[in-house]
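This protein record is not my work; I was only asked to verify it. Take the sequence as given and treat only the tokens as open to question. I have pasted the whole thing underneath without changing anything:
***
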Amino acid sequence: MTFRVIALLDEINAAETACAAKLKSWRMRGRAGRLNEWLSGISPDEVQRVVVGTLTTSEFDFKHLT
């Protein structure tokens, strides 16, 4: 399993909420049936495109790292 840092920003909670909403259809459900942060059926490159696109369109001030 590999984790990539895609962006650096101050408004991490708001950014995480916005990105999680955009990635909802790929989020996996945990044992309790709740969506968690794990994704399935989407490539790492596509996740990066979704995240950077979401941060850009939501006008977050961020530094793109990859």
Residues 7 and 64 are 5 Å apart (CA to CA). Residues 44-57 form the longest helix (14 residues). The radius of gyration is 12 Å. The mean pLDDT is 94.
